Amino acid sequence: MNSLPVLTPATVEACCAPARVPALGAEEAKQKALVFKALADPNRLRLLSIIKAEPSGESCVCDLTEPLDLGQPTVSHHLKMLVEAGLLHREKRGTWAYYSLIPGALDDVAGLLADL
User: Fold this and answer.
1) pLDDT (tens digit, 9 = 90+) per residue, 23-44?
2) Alpha-carbon separation of residue 105 from 53, 70, 80, 110, 111 (angstroms)
3) Domain boundaries, the chain
4) How deeply is 19 buried, as exposed, middle or buried, from its count of CB atoms within 10 A (0-12, 13-18, 19+)?
5) Residues with Cβ < 8 Å from 98, sequence gap 6 or more?
6) Of 20, 96, 88, 27, nearest to 62 (Cα)?
7) How far apart are CA 26 and CA 29, in angstroms?
8) What is the DSSP-derived secondary structure letter of residue 17?
9) Do 48 and 30 contact (CB within 8 A), yes or no?
10) CA 18, 21, 9 angle in degrees (round to 5)?
11) What's the average model confidence in pLDDT over 68-76?
């Protein structure tokens, strides 16, 4: 008759050490991913470039459709994602919205990976 092997409980030494608390918390990771997602689109990168190059430091949405050869609703969608990612500031003036870079936002992006 076959006897079953005797199992012994694992000792603490045999187990892996528990992982430390992650250096990057869930909420912080979510915010950083939002920034990277916003930057992952060529049209959004072009929008940032156009707005940054503007001597006044701001651009009207009405001036951003032609350079991208996109309709106003599409450009507005891309701008909204950049605002939500904390890269652009939106100011409504009458029927038009004006966008400007948030001071230090691009420097913050440059440091995102370095902080990991």
Assistant:
1) 778 888 888 899 999 999 999 9
2) 15, 25, 15, 9, 10
3) 25-112
4) exposed
5) 58, 59, 60, 61, 90, 91, 92
6) 96
7) 5
8) P
9) no
10) 15
11) 94
Strand partners, 98: 60, 91
Backbone dihedral region of 41: left (phi > 0), alpha (psi from -120 to 50 degrees) or beta?
A: beta
From residue 115, give the alpha-carbon distance in Å to each of 31, 49, 84. 13, 24, 21
What does pTM read for this prediction?
A: 0.76
Query: Tokens in use for 101?
Result: 């870079």
Please provide the size of the chain in residues: 116
- The amino acid present at 33, given as its one-letter code, is A
Find the mean pLDDT for residues 83-103.
95
Helix, coil or strand: residue 2: coil
- Retrieve residue 11's tokens: 């000792």
CATH fold of the domain at 25-112: Arc Repressor Mutant, subunit A (1.10.10)
Both tokens of 56, joined, read 């006044």
Long-range contacts formed by 24-31: CB under 8 A, 24+ apart: 24/116, 31/86
